[in-house]
From TrEMBL:
KW Repeat (keyword) present: yes
Pfam families: Pentapeptide
InterPro entries: 5peptide_repeat
Keywords: Repeat
Statement: the UniProt record of this protein carries the keyword Kinase: no
Species this protein is from: Nocardioides guangzhouensis
Gene3D superfamilies per UniProt: E3 ubiquitin-protein ligase SopA
Protein's name in the database: Pentapeptide repeat-containing protein
């Protein structure tokens, strides 16, 4: 297997977005999914999805939501798929690898690393910090290691370190007097009259919450559960740490304002 290359510069935004043309449908094969999570069926890890064609393309990609597969629409590997396929395994397909369990575990690790890189890239854009830059470079170095090295690395400690840096950036960017609703259970609540401008909504349960027309300012949405949250007409242009999977599970319309790097999901139209 070719020796993994080592990154020397920051990953571009494109590097942290899934590029299925450079992957071998790893998520459709290696990862498990369930009907309860919006995948239309139950599947064990290492088993190819029954909609996967021989060219590693999804045979129902054009109408996944309509066919009962919204989980696929919301899933994002943050570019880990092409990294694992083309760099970690040097262009080797899952079809030619004899340990799919290892490959699945590596994909999960790299996905977490790429998610960290995505957040650290946001810190670099909005509130540059030498400590965050140093950690970003370390994450890149770890990301480019061999499968065995990736699977034996202390990922928990790195996640904690990154989490502290994100919290510090959040504190710098938000109003110090803004509400702290971290991990609050706001599922189903009508939040249209709540002051959520610059609020900390880290890990908050916002399932089916009514946020129509709410202006969130630089609210911190790291890990917030936005499934079926009503974002119609809401202004999220400056929120922190919002990801495509979060947006894809929410409800919105053409009046919803998202951060510049997040396109509106097709089904919102």
């Amino acid at each position: 297997m070719p020796k993994p290359r080592h990154a020397t510069s920051a990953p571009t935004e494109l590097d942290l977005v899934a590029d299925c043309s450079r992957c071998f449908a790893l998520c459709c094969v290696l990862l498990p999914y369930s009907r309860a999570a919006g995948f239309g069926a139950d599947k064990a890890g290492g088993v190819p999805c029954h909609h996967l064609a021989t060219d590693d393309r999804c045979s129902i990609h054009a109408d996944l939501r309509e066919r009962g597969w919204p989980g696929c629409v919301a899933f994002d590997c943050f570019g880990a798929g092409q990294q694992v396929a083309q760099v970690t395994y040097g262009g080797t397909s899952w079809r030619d690898h004899d340990d799919l369990g290892e490959m699945a575990a590596v994909l999960s690790v790299v996905r977490l690393l790429h998610e960290m890189l995505r957040y650290l890239a946001e810190v670099a854009r909005r509130s540059p910090d030498p400590d965050a830059e140093a950690v970003r470079r370390r994450v890149l170095e770890v990301r480019d290691r061999t499968p065995v090295e990736l699977l034996t690395f202390d990922l928990d400690a790195l996640q904690e370190e990154v989490g502290d840096l994100l919290a510090a950036a959040s504190a710098r960017l938000r109003d110090a007097g803004a509400p702290d609703l971290s991990r609050a259970d706001l599922a189903g609540h009508d939040l249209r009259e709540r002051d959520l401008h610059d609020a900390s909504l880290r890990g908050a349960l916002l399932i089916a919450a009514d946020l129509r027309g709410v202006r969130l300012g630089s609210a911190d949405l790291l890990g917030a559960d936005l499934r079926d949250a009503d974002l119609r007409g809401a202004d999220l242009a400056s929120v922190l740490f919002l990801t495509r999977p979060q947006v894809a599970t929410a409800r919105g319309d053409r009046a919803t304002v998202l951060p510049p790097d997040l396109p509106a999901p097709a089904h919102w139209a």
